[in-house]
């Protein structure tokens, strides 16, 4: 039987860096993205066209997209919350139509009204209305559109979220034209049981190939949750190098499952990812030291320590 392939969507340069307390230089972001693409990762979320007043860390996304080495076969998605964000990306696309910029955008909403209001300052219904012209225009421009549903299991303000709410928002995003929806356990409070319940309900209405898992690791449950999702048929998983990140509107939440932890778990469990764990661990250690923070990947640290002995 062929080894099952899992696509990893690396979100470190976006989800990871959006929560750093100090500005991260454009050159550092560019180097991070280039290093990540050299590990074999094929989808690297590279920034956001959101309001710099709301998320100052993502200012400079245009510059980042201009400066990175666009590797053939690798996509560099960016978050876009509204038409103004898409117009920011369009400026770049027009600048030099022959130069690659980004092939994909991601729109994002939530299954919890309170979180959505804090995150993008509107109701869920308003956000979905707002996305319709964004998706239409993006598709006209030849961009693929991914959707996110945050607080898919627990909301920091409202508590446990019924999976039916997540299912309904997911269906709307797919009907609008998203090719895939990533289900965000924004505060990393899911467990294999709640993850399974979520997927049972959503998968009953949506083809599994159109879903991705986006698990934060706040309660150290992310690997267990991802493995549960994989057993249920999910084949696209989001992760963040060195476990960077969190969400500015989800107090206390830590970053996504670390990409190093994910790659190690997947290879030991018999999945193929195409990612070089040596290069990845070195990159995770490098960005952690640049940011002056502890490396959030236990696998990354263990892997580098083991390499020193060899
Ligand atoms: C959505 C808005 C813009 C609404 O913000 P708003 O204040 O309601 O928007 P507005 O239309 O009233 O505009 C206010 C100002 O923002 C400007 N503006 C308006 N739009 C843009 C734009 N696109 N780019 C740049 N500027 C923009 C606009 O021009 C205006 O400027 P002013 O006149 O005051 O100078 C705001 O709430 C926002 O930017 N939020 C950012 C949210 C965010 O990035 N959150 C983190 C990412 S989501 C996440 O991490 C979860 C995820 C995806 O990882 C999954 C998971 O883990 O669950």
From TrEMBL:
Catalyses which reaction(s): (3S)-3-hydroxy-3-methylglutaryl-CoA = acetoacetate + acetyl-CoA
GO biological process: ketone body biosynthetic process; L-leucine catabolic process
Gene3D superfamilies according to UniProt: Aldolase class I (3.20.20.70)
Pathway: Metabolic intermediate metabolism; (S)-3-hydroxy-3-methylglutaryl-CoA degradation; acetoacetate from (S)-3-hydroxy-3-methylglutaryl-CoA: step 1/1
EC number: 4.1.3.4
Gene Ontology MF term list: hydroxymethylglutaryl-CoA lyase activity; metal ion binding
Ubl conjugation recorded as keyword: no
Domain Pyruvate carboxyltransferase: 6-281
Keywords: Lyase, Metal-binding
Name of the top EC class for this enzyme: lyase
The UniProt record lists the keyword RNA-binding: no
Family indicated by similarity: Belongs to the HMG-CoA lyase family.
NCBIfam families listed in its UniProt record: PRK05692.1 (NF004283)
Protein name: hydroxymethylglutaryl-CoA lyase
Species whose genome carries this gene: Dacryopinax primogenitus (strain DJM 731) (Brown rot fungus)
